[in-house]
Amino acid sequence: MTRNDWPLLDRWIPGRDEWSRSKYAGFLLSVFMVLGALPYVLTNRIAAWRGITVVEISFQIDWDLPYLPLFVLPYYSFYLYFPIVAWIAAHESVRKQGLLFFQRMLALTWFCCIMFLLFPSEIRLRSQAVGAEGVLGVLMDELHQADAPYNSWPSIHVLQALLVVLFLRYALIKRGLWSTMLAVFSWLACGLLVVSTVLIKQHYVFDMLSSMAIVAVAWRWWIRPAFN
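^ that's the sequence the OP posted. Answer follows.
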């Protein structure tokens, strides 16, 4: 039986499995925003305040890749992933697994935040991210104002996006709703998001690869086996 990583929830909110789907999805999303987004913002600001680089892992390819401002669009699509996965996880057939998934995705997010504090690294690639015009320029400016360039490795964008698609695949296969067309669309959208992190000069290639490695290990040996 799928277990709850936070047993206190069973004591504090014992009737949550009887909630409507929209209420349960709102609960999952709210918990994630408070316990995931706020720590990330805080650690990013602390790293920027310190203004130091402890470990920078960059390669020549990071500087050689072109700056493609159009990829800011899939980068921003990241924020659609969480209401979608909260809604899918709130279905009565996967609520226990959905709660566990959110708990463990939060744990991995906290791990990334700890890495940002222990090994801050300024992303110097932003010097190349210039020249975008119109809506794309506005989106890039907003991104740079909201996000200090110290959220280097692992990339939370890549880590969370991959985890979300893996859980969607699991949950929809369980319900018989995962089709070839949906798989192609989901992985293509996720792939564009992943590469957008380096093509808009928001991350180094190593940030992307390290996140992919963490997801591969965590999903295979820590998250997916716990659903049974």
